[in-house]
Amino acid sequence: MKPLNLIALLLFLGGSVWAFTRSERGVRDVQDIYFSAMSPFLKSGSKMETEARTFLTETRHSKELEVELAFVRGELGRLRIIESRYRELETENDRLRHALDYKKATHFDVIPAQVIRRQPTTWWQTVDIDAGEERGIGTQLAVLSNEGLVGKIDRIYKDQNRSSVLLLTDEKCQVSARVEGSPEVGILSGQRGRFDGSPLLRLRFLSTDAAVRVGQRVFTTGRGEIFRANILLGRIVSVEKGALDSEALVKPSVNFADLSTVFVVLSADP
User: Fold this and answer.
1) Residue range 104-110: average pLDDT?
2) What is the pLDDT, as a whole number, of residue 181?
3) Residue 178's pLDDT band (cuts 50, 70, 90)
4) What's the burial of 166, exposed, middle or buried (CB within 10 Å: 0-12/13-18/19+)?
5) Distance between CA 14 and CA 163 in Å, rounded?
6) Angstrom distance (rounded) from CA 222 to CA 264
């Protein structure tokens, strides 16, 4: 029993005993005095009881809201996973469509492959692809993307269905190159060392008075029988003339930081 109710009960019993020993008028006077005295307590008790019931109701509603909130959060997480997977599938679909379009458009006989491995320490030197000997791939075959020349096959992993590609950004990958709209021909290769952003290529052995300018495109010449002619390599970003020859820096046409689909060239149409 609540303390206020207990006090009220005791006062009522005491008043009742005393009242019954008095006259009827006295009883009425006692009753009036009792109810006047107890009225604040009764109102207070009623108010407290109402507030308590309201609190219990709000508590129940709060628990229900917590359960609903937990459910909504779970659904939101599930929808985010579905959205992420959908975006991955959408990206994969776009990549495959572009690969199919490129294979149809190119005059080379190519095999599409996916980049499956890259080492941070050799990021600008080599990548591994998911195609090997069983698909007719051998070493020294050119590797392209829909942006231009990627590099060449330099290693086949036996019984592993994969190959290693030496990238154009490696200094050991050297390509005979020509400057568009110019008679200039030189050797294009990567540079030694690390790069903060996309690496630049070196086009060496140009003539001392090379009439080349920033923005000109650079293509393969086809010499050497590894890289076919007229494959895009990049654009000139700077030219430095020397006493014996000139040298240009070339920005690769391929985004080597984000390689995904490549094409291994088996042969070219005559």
Assistant:
1) 77
2) 93
3) very high
4) buried
5) 103
6) 16
